[in-house]
Amino acid sequence: MVPLADLLLFAGAALLIALTPGPNMLYLLSRSLCQGRRAGFISLLGVVAGFIVHMLSATLGMTALFLAVPFAYEVLRWAGAAYLMWLAWQALKPGARSPFETRELPHDSTRRLFAMGFLTNLLNPKIAVFYLSIFPQFVSPAHGPVFAQSIVLGCTQIVLSFGVNMLVVLGAARLAAWFTQRPRWLATQRYVMGGVLGALAVRMALEPRRAV
């Protein structure tokens, strides 16, 4: 199974990604502000469903990747690094908006709230990049079945992301008000997010090719 040291390091990376504002956080924050905590929670359940799809897709794909096409990982790694760098630029470029600058949204039904949460996460490039580029770095055939390791890591990521996003839903009003009253922090948050994404992109690009 996954060594404890690797699991803790993965948990730290997953927590950092969860704390970095992106489409999921923006949607949950805006929905909770516009329609209340119940709507935010239902949307969060949809987000979790999206995480499960990402996890299963990456798990099954990674099993085939390690066993059949090791070179494909290198392609995914470089593509992920390039996309993370693009996301960093989107956060740092002049005129960029902070995810904490909320937008007005119409009230939606329970079914639509769940579906929108699901689609927002399913199409979330930040999560796709995480599962395709960062996730594989913590899986090694030397530590046992790839499938079992992937499930353990995926569940760890889902639990951490659920906890962070649940706090966003519960504290949406206070969080938005805090940032609104401190416009400099909105800019600081963008720079921090851009710096973190850029650092992850560089780390991926410099990661030596792994033997399988």
Structural commentary:
There is one protein chain. The protein has 212 residues and is an all-alpha fold. It has one domain (4-206). The chain is 78% helix and 0% strand. It has 9 helices and no strands. It has helices at residues 4-19, 23-35, 37-68, 70-92, 110-122, 125-134, 146-170, 172-180, 183-206.
Topology overview:
Layout lengths: L3 H16 L3 H13 L1 H32 L1 H23 L17 H13 L2 H10 L11 H25 L1 H9 L2 H24 L6
Helix pairs in contact: 1-7, 2-3, 2-7, 3-4, 3-5, 3-6, 3-7, 4-6, 4-9
Provide the domain count. 1
Overall structural class, as computed from helix and strand content, comes to: mainly alpha
Please count the beta strands (DSSP E, at least 2 residues each).
0
Distance between the termini: 16 Å
Helices and strands, in order, run as HHHHHHHHH
Overall pLDDT score: 79
Backbone CA Rg: 18 Å
Largest sheet: none
How would the global form be characterised? globular
Classify the beta-strand content into a percent band: under 5%
Number of helices: 9
Give the % helix: over 70%
pLDDT under 50 segments (min length 5)?
none
List keywords for this structure.
mainly alpha; 212 residues; 9 helices
Brief overview:
This protein has 212 residues and is mainly α. The protein has helices at 4-19, 23-35, 37-68, 70-92, 110-122, 125-134, 146-170, 172-180, 183-206.
